[in-house]
Amino acid sequence: MEERKGIENEKINKYACASAIVASMISIIFGYETGVMSGALIFIKEDLKITESQVEVLGGIINFCALIGALSAGRTSDYIGRRYTICLASAIFFSGSLLMGFAPNFALLLTGRCVAGIGVGFALVIAPVYSVEISAASTRGILASLPEIGISLGILFGYISSYFFGKITLAHRLEGNVCDRSRPFSRVGFRHSWNARVTKMARMQGRLKDAKTVLSKVSNTEAEAESRLQDIRLAAGVDPDCNDDHVITPNQNTSGQGVWKELLLRPTPQVRWMLLAALGIHFFEHATGIEAVILYSPRIFKKAGIESKNKLLLATIGVGITKTVFISVSSFLIDKTEDENFC
Question: Keyword set for this entry (predicted)?
Answer without folding.
Answer: Membrane, Sugar transport, Symport, Transmembrane, Transmembrane helix, Transport
